[in-house]
Design goal:
Blueprint: H1 2-18, H2 33-44, E1 46-52, E2 57-62, E3 65-70, E4 77-80, E5 86-87, E6 93-100, E7 103-110, E8 114-115, E9 122-123, E10 125-133, E11 139-148, E12 156-163, E13 166-167, E14 179-183, E15 188-192, E16 197-205, E17 208-216, H3 227-235, E18 239-243, E19 246-250, E20 256-261
Antiparallel strand pairs: 1-2, 1-11, 2-3, 3-4, 5-6, 6-7, 7-10, 8-9, 10-11, 12-13, 12-14, 12-20, 14-15, 15-16, 16-17, 18-19, 19-20
InterPro entries: DUF306_Meta_HslJ, HslJ-like_sf, Hsp_HslJ-like
Pfam family, one: META
Protein name: META domain-containing protein
Length: about 260
């Protein structure tokens, strides 16, 4: 009898032990290129990066300086203080004229889609770098693709607090106030315009921010609702600033939107 009872206890113990769930291993994932760029912006404050091949080279532009590196002999590394770029009159091109050791470096950034010759990845800007060392006729050209790194501080949910000098209240927007959620990884935004759901894209350069290709649902709004004024102001934005948990959007005409961070 004792042997039988001991056997039953062992069977129950083994059965219970075999049902203990196995915790699956968490797969290791690599950070996306967009995430890596965001972290790089935070750490090094680079607002533009570019790369090229044959030979391999890279460019980083920050307010604190410009850095160029390559695998080409004699052109391995150049650093210089930041300069304000010139904008071409007849094309959407920014040009940096930089003095380097024993020569000059000219960086041209074109607003033209570019495909990496090795990876096939597409970036929104084509880049041409011409470095002259010594004699004027002794120059080397590097070509590749680049991207402006969207300010990661924009990545959040923002609720409208003031529009063109007036505080937002329920008489202007019944129910929820206008709000936008900005995703700096995808350069997209979505939100609520005060009556309809809205979404669209972001165009970002250093110090420049535009809300583009805005679409919205087509619900009828009350006559006193000021969604149309909000959307017009949003789409005319060209400049931004962030301070004290507030996002300020404005343009040269004086239009201004002030949002409060809520997330």
């Amino acid at each position: 009898m004792k042997n039988t009872l001991l056997y039953l206890v062992l069977v129950v113990f083994v059965s219970c032990k075999s049902t203990i769930p196995v915790v699956p291993a968490v797969p290791k994932t690599q950070p996306t290129a967009a995430y890596t760029q965001q972290i790089e912006y935070l750490e090094q404050e680079n607002y533009f990066t570019a790369t090229g091949n044959e030979p391999s080279w890279s460019l980083k532009i920050a307010e604190k300086g410009i850095q160029f590196t390559s695998l080409k002999p004699v052109f391995e590394s150049f650093t210089a203080p930041h300069v304000t770029p010139e904008r071409a009159m007849d094309a959407n091109v920014k040009r940096y004229q930089i003095a380097i050791a024993a020569g000059t470096m000219t960086i041209e950034i074109f607003q033209q889609e570019c495909e990496n010759t090795m990876s096939g990845a597409k970036l929104p800007h084509s880049v041409k770098i011409e470095i002259t060392k010594g004699k004027i006729d002794n120059s080397t050209v590097f070509k590749g693709c680049g991207v402006y790194i969207t300010d990661p501080r924009l990545h959040d949910i923002w609720v409208l607090e003031k529009m063109n000098g007036e505080n937002v209240n329920s008489t202007k927007f019944k129910g929820a106030f206008p709000n936008i959620e900005i995703n700096t990884m995808t350069n997209r935004f979505s939100g609520f315009g005060g009556c309809n759901s809205i979404s669209g894209g972001l165009f970002f350069e250093n110090g420049l921010l535009r809300f583009t290709n805005t679409i919205s649902t087509m619900m009828a709004c009350e006559p006193q609702n000021r969604e149309s004024e909000f959307l017009t102001s949003l789409q005319s934005t060209t400049f931004y600033s962030i301070e004290n948990l507030r996002l300020t959007l404005k343009n040269q005409s004086g239009i201004e939107l002030i949002f409060k961070k809520v997330d």
